Amino acid sequence: MDLGLNGKRAVITGGSRGIGFAIAEALAAEGVAVGLVARSADGLAAAAERLDGRGVPVATVAADVMDASALQQAVDEVAAAFGGLDLLVANAGGTVGGGNITNSGPGEFAGTLAFNAGHAAELIRAGLPHLRTAGGGSAGGGTTTNWVSCDGGGFLRGGLGGGGDVSSADCPCAGSGRNTRDSSVRSRR
């Protein structure tokens, strides 16, 4: 399937295995340069080796997405390797401690929210200057996301339950006179 992504540049958190790696494979098949961010340097090396031969550049950066400065540095390193960024994929996530509010210890449920939604917000904050420089782009992640599209690019404005508050005015194309449209995408569980 041709999604019109050939030549785009992406950073994917949690990209060394599981769903993140599947996203990397799918984007690479579309001709997208993929930057993988995960905690394990060994896991990243194995993922990069598995992507070898896809005909696209692959960059890896070991970083903990819960460390905002490390995430910023990782995003900047991937952007430097590719000469910019067009796509941000906030895939890293999981549970802290017990896994849900009924069996978690003090602070664990809040930690889970921070891991899943907080890192996505930090990824957007870190990547937004690169999307603006590229003239637009897309960001996605979370269980419910709102997208603001700008001439084929876009900007994530929601998060868990559509609760994020980055407005369409922050879209890289806002105020440019270009078409901006808002739509919602909800996962089905």
Concise description?
This protein is α/β, with parallel strands linked by helices and 189 residues long. It has helices at residues 18-29, 41-51, 68-82, 108-134; strands at residues 9-13, 33-38, 58-62, 87-90, 138-141, 144-150, 153-156, 180-186. The two termini are 25 Å apart.
Please describe what this structure looks like.
The protein has 189 residues and is an alpha/beta fold. Helices cover 34% and strands 22% of the residues. It has four helices and eight strands; from the N terminus they run E-H-E-H-E-H-E-H-E-E-E-E. It has helices spanning 18-29, 41-51, 68-82, 108-134, and strands at residues 9-13, 33-38, 58-62, 87-90, 138-141, 144-150, 153-156, 180-186. It has a five-stranded parallel β-sheet, with helices on both faces. Strands 7-6-8 form a three-stranded antiparallel β-sheet, with no helix packed on it. Helix 3 packs parallel to helix 4 (108-134).
